[in-house]
Amino acid sequence: VQKLVGLIGWIRSYLGITNHQMQPLFDLLSGITSSTDEKQLTSAAKKTLEEVELALAHKFVNRIDPSVGVQLFILKDHEIPCGILCQWNDNWEDQLHIL
User: Fold this and answer.
1) Ramachandran sector of residue 78 (left: φ over 0; alpha: ψ -120 to 50; beta: rest)
2) pLDDT digit string, tens, across residues 61-79
């Protein structure tokens, strides 16, 4: 569980997965004393993993365009902040590029 949550943690902001959505997986970490401890997935944790899987299938990260300014957005999701680096260009087909 620790490794899975850690790996998702690296990419969740790129996928648009919020800390609130991750909470069922965070809850599985409570009471773990060893990386070999086993936990049963709750239905909420399974739903979160399905959301991550869906996001992985449909999202991608863009490369930075040096000719366009970079913006930082700080979002507060249920009191937990999250930062997103992005670029916006009205001339792009997808105007918002998350970096």
Assistant:
1) left
2) 778 899 999 999 888 877 7
